[in-house]
Structure formats: structure tokens, C-alpha cells
Write a structure and sequence with these properties.
Four copies of one chain form a homotetramer. With about 240 residues, the first copy, chain A, is α+β, with helices and mostly antiparallel strands. The first copy, chain A, has seven helices and twelve strands. In chain A, the strands form three sheets. In chain A, strands 2, 3, 6, 7 and 8 form a five-stranded antiparallel beta sheet that branches. In chain A, strands 9-10-11-12 form a four-stranded antiparallel beta sheet. In chain A, strand 6 and strand 7 form a beta hairpin. The termini of chain A are far apart.
């Protein structure tokens, strides 16, 4: 337990820089927000309806890691119903350090975890590792030019994991590496928060969930009647 | 851990077909949606109020498995209150493969998991198996003609499960079999998503939950006064 | 694993009476609803705003167990804010069997689990037992006349628990006993559903939760400013 | 198991004082509410919109512990979107006992747990300890004058933890200590309730969650299109 004690002391100490770091996070997530705002600049006035940005951010010596969920997108069908168009993800943003508690937002790299990759993350055992490969240009003529590899492997001091991201660019002949130790406590936040959003990035809260108006004999129940076990039985 | 590493490589590779597969899922869930729309075609304009469809889908060599929740249905009582009429389920749809990443939606089979069967699924230990028997014609004159058996048993490589569905039809003299290996990561998604919807298919989010308007001295509190420990104490 | 297999067969078979049982549950919960409606008969027309009843019900040879959550009640303060008046509970209703799949709703007994008792239930290890004592007349002149004892102890076949409720009435010289085996799958439903409602019976979803309107610079944030770490720091 | 049995008996007995204690809690949280209301006295009429207070409270021989969540605060950006300004916390309030079931609310001490500290709390193994250091005057000229140390260490009887808070004031030359045994059942409530609010104090329910209006082709989906894997792919 002593090692754990010390590792927590270290965490406690590092957390004494929290205020300063947070102010930096605001800067970082500000430019981050600008990106996404550009993305939605055509969306009109409804945009001011309280769309929010919130990261879980970890700042370490060599790099920072910002994690945030991305909702799924839905397509409206002629019937007026909707079905998932693009599934949601949990977006990881790695930012390299360029000095003591200074991080270069220009050189950030993204890695988007799918539902199954999130499932792998939150079910990792204490001694287990996992590795994910992404090709941003998949199915395009550029396929294979850029290779991203995320490896999550256990730390020696109980319970934490080392996050390694490598981004190889065959054209630019570059290979960027990000290395970030995640404590057991930080990983527990990831596990809990990812478990909370996993059904939401799958869009299940739209199929069934408190946000549905289910008062009275609503259509959801009507349709459910056709979808319930009878559907199976009637075959 | 090496075996795990490799199994994850395999997963990573297979996930490089994700885009294509998803487009196929859209086709599949499209016809799927049509079914349920027919079911609710009489429900009128409120239908366009954002009813949504979202599956968790797994595509393997011999079959595909699509999983999605089905809300419970409620009956309005003279009092204006509601009680559960039909309990919700988690619907499994098995589709046989008819070629490389081609699946025949016409030959799909459903299996609807009850709350207790979901409880069994999400509490499965690493070495445990479970088996469910359904008779779609239960309590009818056709009872026993069709027998469905779903078996979930552990895979050798750490953490995954094999899903086996057998549908025996004594009249048509057919016995369809679906076999699908589910990785630990995929099962973790099932476990998390099923844990999220379990209270919702039971309808508990209607009895107590954020979607209830609980501002001020609302009736829920009034009724709760009669239902709280005093109810026990006053006996 | 074989024993588990068999126990699941038994469950599967018993589940083939599900339809019949459910129809019975409807009868049971109907009278149940009447009770609670009488309790709220003065609550007026708002009552028709979709208050719902939903049990998790287990029917066994000697008794039935119906479990359902009860929301907390809140008191409005002069400030217009609210604070918890009565904490919510999870209500257990035991009904004795009087024949094959017949249960005598007249002889039901209630046992209301507090948040901490729910915490004990959901954290029970495979070999652990727990025992709760309630005195409905606590702090009244009748204190000690009626003693309720709920004991939950592990079953031999892996993962299930035996629920025992004893209600001793010193005045009527009666001692009613209810004994109910709960399978691992059924207990997993209890654990998951109780975990879902635990924060809600504590009223935490009113302090912080999706149902709060948090758009714009809302008062919740204003007050949070006074309640956040600065409150600690400023001391 | 016997020791556990006895510990639970003790708990059951102590719970027979629940009613009295709760009435006391109401007194305590009343003054507590006054504090926070003063904090928001300028917030205007919207305040009556159902802001609520709810603690999880534990009353022991030497001290009482009240736990409650504090939502994050958001800053509106020119774009109309919002980003987290101050992260939420889980606030611990320690009150010393001054007699049998009497607690001196004037001498209370606060300790605010950050998301990562909550992550540490809920992932504590049965034999693990953790320790947190806070300096309320951090980054001010008074830095180091007051030192708060919260230590959580396992109890000998299975599953509980001892909470120790020490508040050293170098100026007032005082060192207040609070010691509180938390049973396994009580800690299970903490773990479950903290797991429920952790994503909420991070503000993730604002980024993605049922409380978002996601009907139709809403902007959240629009923006998501820019944030989803394509963002990664397009780099």
C-alpha cells in the first residue's frame, strides 16, 4: 500500500497546480471550440440553445490528454422516424508538451474511440493491454498513408495504465509519439464517464430513455407493441 | 497477454471494414424500420416526434447480430395513472451470412430477452454459460411447434462468449442455427448498454426518474407520502 | 458449470409460465394501485399527469416478491428552494402463495429498504449475508409490538440468495414467515435496478441531473459558485 | 460471516434511531441551506424553479458526515455555446459530535472532492487507502496557512473504511480532527451515488445526454458531424 500512498501524494501535489492548469485548459478548449464552431457555423440561431463543451483532461510531463464524448447523428426517414446515421464516439485529443505545463495545441492529434473500442477500454483487467489501429484515409486513394496506433498497457504501480499514441505519416515521413501515464484514479474517471456515455453514443437513449415523452398512450408504446416479444412469437 | 493482443489485432483489422459494414447495417435496419413502421402506421402525426432506431450490431463470418431495446407498454387506468402492460425487452436479431460481409435479412430470426434473462446475461462470470428456451406459440394450440434455444458460452481466448441460436420448427421440419463469436470488448458493450436499459424496460424510470416533473409539491411526492416507510410502519 | 446449466434450465422452464404469471401480476398490482390511489385521492387532476406503477416481481412456490422504488418527498422552503423531507425507499412486497401460482394479496407484508440498506443489498459478496430489523411502531407507544426481520443469505447453487422475511406481532401472537429463493439472474436485475434508483431515492437527481434546466447562466450555476471548492478555500 | 452479521446487527440497531437523526439532519441541512441561499440571494425569482438540496448523511459517535454533489458552472461564449467554467465537485461536510447524537454545525469543515479524487474513492480496493491534500489558500499570499488532509483507510471488519479529516491552521495554531467509520453498506451508497454524479460534475451530460433536445435534425447532430471520426480521418 505504501507505493500507492506515495503515488497518491504525487497526485495530490500535482493537483496543487490544478487552477493554473485549468486556466490553460480553457485556452486549449477555446481553440478546440472554435474548430467545432466553424463546423456548425451554418446551423443558425438554435445553436445558442445551450450546446456545451466539457473535457476530462489529464496534464502530464510529456503530453496532455483531453477526452470528450461526441453524440451520434441521426437521419430523418420519410416516416418521420429517425435512425442512426453516424455512430457517436469518444474523442481523445493528445497535445504534446513544449515546456513545464506548456502544451502546443497546434500539434494535437485526435483518436476517436468507437463503441466497441470503448467497451474494450472499460473492461480492461489490471494486467491487460489493448491496441487499436486507425487509418484516417481508409477506403480512399490515400489509404495507408497515415497509420495511427493507440496502445494502452498496465503501469507497474498498481492500477494505472500507460497511453501511447503513434501517428506515422508515410508521405511527410513523420512519426509523432505521445506517451502519457494515467493513474488508477484517472482511469476510474474514464471508466465511469465512458460507461455513462457508451449507451448515448450508441443512440440507445433515443430509442428508450427518460428524455422520451412517454406520458399517456404515446406512440412509443404503440410501436413497442409491434416490437415486443409478440414480434418473436408471431413469426 | 499476447493472445489477447492478437485477438485485438484481429478486431482492429476487422474494424477497418467498419464503414462498409455500417452502410450495410443501414440497409438492414432500413427494412427493419419498415417493419416497425407498418406496426405503427395508424399512430398518426405524433409519430414524427422523434422516435428513433439504433442497434448495436456485430458482423461476423457466419452471421450478424443486431441488439436493440424495446420500451415497455403502459395501460392508462381510470384514475389517470398508468401501470406496465407489457414489459420491455432487449431484442436480438440474428441474420445469416450468405457471402463475405453479405447477410440475408430475409432469413433473420428474433430472440427477445426478458429483464431476468438480461440480468443473467450481464452477470455472467468469465467461465459461466447460460441457456434460454423460448416457445413463440406458448399457450396457443401451436405450442411446441417452434422451439428457440439461445446458448451463451465462454470462448477460450480470454473474456469472449459464443452465441448460439437454434430455431427448430417441427412443422416445417427445419432447424436453423446461428453461431457468432462475441469478443470481450463487444460483450462489454452489451453488458454496459443492457445495464443502462434494464431499469427502463422494467418501466422504473417512469415511477422514479429525471423525466418526471418533480418541481414543487407535485403529486408524485403526495402519493409517495402514502407509499414511503410509513406505509410499512402503519400496518 | 453443469449445475448452473440445470439451474438455468429450471429458470427457463419456469419462465414458460411468464405470460400467465404476468396476467396475475396485473391483478396483483391492480389492487396495489388502488391502495396507493386511495392514498392520493385528494391530489386532484394533476394526478393524470402520467404517474406510473412498475414492479420487478418474482413468483416462487411459497411466496411472491414485488419490488418497486418510492421517490423521496421534498419540502418547499420560504426561499422557494426545496430540501428532502422524507427520503425515498425501495419497497419490498411479500405475498404468500395459497396454491399453485396463486397468491393471497390480502396477506401481503411490506419491507421498505433505506438507501443504506439498498447499499448493503447491492454490495453483497457471493458468500455474504445481511440482516435488517424494522419496528413499524418505532418511537411510538407501540414500539416493540411488531418486529420485522429480513435476512438475505447465499444459496448453495452459485450466485443466488434466499430472502427470508419474518413478521412477529407480540399482540396478535402471530409470526408470519416468507421464504423466497432468488436466482443469480434475478438478483442481478435487483442489483442493477437498485443501483439505478439509489441516487434517485436520495434525491440527488434533483440537486444535479439532466432533468434540471441548466441552459444559460442559470441559478444552479450561480449557487454552485458559492458551493464549489471556493467555499472550502474561503474558510 | 459472523463478524459481518454482528456488524450488520449494529447497523440495524443504530438505524432504529433513524427518525430522530433525520429530524436532526433537517435542522442541520436547514442552516446549511441558509448558507447556500445567502450565496445566491441575488439570483432572483428564477430561484424558485425547484433548486433542491439533498445530502447523504452518516451520523456516528464522534462526528457526522454529509455528502452532496455540486454541479459544474458554465461560461457562455460569443457563439452562444457554453464551456465548463468551474468543474463540479462532491462536497463533504464534517460536523463534530458534542454529545449523544448532538452535532455542532458551527464547527463544520468542508472538503471538496474533484472528479479525479472521486475516481480514486469509487475505485478503492478492499485493502487500499488513499489520501488527499488540500490548501484552501492555494496560489494566494496565505498559501500554506491551512492544510487539510483527508485519509480513507480500510476498517478491519470486512469492507468498511475509516474517514479521517485533519485541518491544520498554522495561524490559529489549531488542528481539528474528524474520525468517522463508514460501513461497507454506507460506502456502497457513496460509491453508487458518486458514480452516478461523476459524469454530471464533469458536465458531460450537457455535451451528450437525455436532457439535450435531440428531436429532428438538431444542431447537436450537425456539429457532431464535424466532431466524429471524420475529424480524425480528415487530418
Amino acid at each position: 500500500m505504501l507505493s500507492r500512498f506515495f503515488s497518491l501524494r504525487r497526485q495530490a501535489v500535482s493537483s496543487s497546480f490544478l487552477a493554473e492548469k485549468l486556466s490553460y485548459v480553457r485556452d486549449a478548449s477555446w481553440s478546440y471550440n472554435l474548430v467545432s464552431e466553424r463546423g456548425i457555423s451554418t446551423a443558425g440561431s438554435e445553436r445558442s440553445s445551450g450546446k456545451a463543451f466539457a473535457d476530462f483532461s489529464i496534464f502530464k510531463g510529456k503530453a496532455a490528454l483531453l477526452m470528450s464524448p461526441v453524440p451520434p447523428t441521426f437521419t430523418k426517414m420519410d416516416s418521420g422516424h429517425q435512425r442512426v446515421d453516424k455512430k457517436g464516439v469518444i474523442l481523445l485529443k493528445f497535445i504534446p508538451a513544449i515546456g513545464q505545463r506548456k502544451y502546443d495545441s497546434e500539434r494535437k492529434q485526435f483518436f476517436a474511440l468507437s463503441a466497441t473500442e470503448v467497451g474494450c477500454l472499460i473492461s480492461l483487467g489490471p494486467d491487460e493491454s489493448c491496441e487499436f489501429f486507425h487509418d484516417p484515409s481508409m477506403k480512399s486513394s490515400l489509404e495507408g498513408q497515415v497509420k495511427k496506433t493507440l496502445t494502452i498497457s498496465p503501469l507497474n504501480d498498481g492500477g494505472g495504465y500507460m497511453f501511447n499514441l503513434s501517428v506515422m505519416n508515410a508521405v511527410q515521413k513523420t512519426n509523432e509519439r505521445f506517451t502519457l501515464p494515467v493513474t488508477k484514479a484517472e482511469f476510474s474517471v474514464m471508466r465511469t464517464a465512458c460507461g455513462f456515455v457508451l449507451p448515448l453514443i450508441m443512440g440507445w437513449d433515443r430509442v428508450i430513455g427518460p428524455h422520451l415523452d412517454r406520458t399517456g398512450h404515446g406512440p412509443p408504446e404503440q410501436s413497442a407493441i409491434k416490437m415486443d416479444p409478440d414480434l418473436e412469437w408471431e413469426r
